[in-house]
Amino acid sequence: MIVYGRSNGKALRSALDSMTEVRNGYIYAAATGERIAKTGNTIMMSLQEVLLIMGASSETRKQRRN
After folding, report:
1. Less packed terminus of the chain by CB within 10 Å, N or C?
2. Does pTM top 0.90 for this prediction?
3. How far is CA 4 from the centre of its chain?
4. CB 27 within 8 A of CB 43
């Protein structure tokens, strides 16, 4: 099961990469059928955090190149 949390950036990124499907207002992992989260504010906050984490990681990559 995919766990959303601030402390685990890898889990957040893999959650975006994996296939998901929505049934009855819940988000499921398509491969296993496990319920990930109920759609609503919680998942939207998690997606915002994912974008922040991914943005921060791309910024550090740019700084390393220079």
Report:
1. C
2. no
3. 6
4. yes
